[in-house]
Structure formats: structure tokens, C-alpha cells
Amino acid sequence: MAGKKYTNAALKIDRNQEYDLVDAVEKIREITQTKFDATIDIAVKLGVDPRHADQVVRGTVMLPHGTGKTVSVLVVCKEAKVEEAKAAGADLVGFEEYIEKIQEGWTGVDVIIATPDVMGQLGKVAKILGPRGLMPNPKSGTVTMDVAKAVKDVKAGKIEFRVDKAGNVHAPVGKVSFQTEQLVANISSFLREIVRLKPAAAKGHYVQGIAISSTMSPSVKVRNEKFVA
Question: Per-residue confidence at 34, pLDDT binned at 50, 70, 90?
């Protein structure tokens, strides 16, 4: 059963209406009644079949205003890269001791960055990290010798996304406390990257639906003609 705040918020929007992006953002900010600074998320329904490898949409994007979230980063590397990682702002840095911790079930960070020379050992815990979206991957820039750049990018608002089995992509795009212009810029950057990554094998209507919501709020549909083009 929906709570009173959710019900009241739902009364302020037309669930069947598609709003222009600016109006959608302002509507979400208006109806969010949490006592904390709620995260705003975007969901995009894509006309792809993720069962086929050539239709999997995944990538990274730098949100111009960040996510508003403090991201904790672990860098798994050998001794030569430890100081570089620490200087760049990594919260945790190490090698074998963290692989052992992960084997014991620990996954207490938001992002893991690794150098290529430790990926063989990190593969031992892929079954633990993979389902949690924590396994480093060269395509997302989290397997690299340039650990300083990788750490700084993640801290500055670089996010990773991947289409799920149902053809949807979800991502955080900011906080309710952000200005409307900041949220619009973040969402536009995200959607431009989604459109840029359209697989050649995808047929028909690609961006089929866009919706934004905040923590514990109903979703608001976004008019998508601009982004389809």
C-alpha cells in the first residue's frame, strides 16, 4: 500500500502525460517530500534485444554537475601505483588483502578500479563483484594504468550504465537540491550518450520511453522526440 506522501505526490502529476524535460524536472522537485536530499534517477526504455551481444548498450558518461553523491573508490594495484592512487583521492588502495576481504564477502565500496596486471587475481572474485556491478572493466575505464585519471573521473561524476534484460537503462542523474538547469544538463548529457551508442543491429524505434523519479516518488514521463532525433 502506497504511503500518504507518495499518494499526495501522485495526485499532482498526470501519469499518462509526457512532459518537456524542464517541466518534468521541476515537477519531480515539486512533488519530492523526503526529509533528506533525494537522488533523482532516470529510466530509459530502449528498442533493443539484450540477449544479442550486438544489441547490448553499455558505457560511461561524465555528468557535468556530478551525481551529488560522495563516491567511495577502491583501487586494486601493486605497490608501484599505490601513491598515485592515494594522491588522486582513492578511499582505499591495496592488492591481495582486498581480494581476500572480497572473498570473505566484503563489498563496501561504490567503485573498484584496477590495473591490468592484477586482473588475473581479481578474476577469482568476479562472481562476487559482477552481480553487484563492481567488477572492473576496460570499457568503463576502470581497468587502466592511469589510475589517477580514473579516480578523479569517478569522483567528479563519471557514471557507468548498462541495459538490463528487459531493455531498460537506469542511472542516477543528481539530487533534488540541484538547480533545474543542472539536472537538465546532466540528463541531456546522459541521453545524448545513450543515443550515440545506438547499436547498428537495433531496428525500429530506439528510444521508446523516458521517465525520471526521485527516491520514493512516482515517476514522470519525459517527451522523447528531441532525443529520438
Answer: confident
